Amino acid sequence: MTILTIGQRIAKARHDKKMSQLKLSHYTNLSQAMISAYENDYIVPTEKSLRIIAQHLEVKVGWLTHGDGNDRDDPTELV
Fold first, then answer.
1. pLDDT of residue 70
2. What angle do CA 19, 46, 8 make, to 5 degrees?
3. Is 48 exposed, middle or buried (0-12, 13-18, 19+ CB in 10 A)?
4. Which residue among 10, 48, 55, 68 is buried most deeply as judged by most CB within 10 Å?
């Protein structure tokens, strides 16, 4: 079993939504460079950034940070 990093989980969720980094940056009000830095594990996102990213990618914050559970196992409980 492969364990993904936070950045890899952000990238996976973004790809699953067929969303570009630029589009995610527009929705989250984060720069495209910041999204790229998160996805490449150069910078660890703040809790606030993780919540915003999770909301727009429709995944749980716990899945982004720790890989806990399924990314979208309960759409009513995204954070």
1. 66
2. 45
3. exposed
4. 10
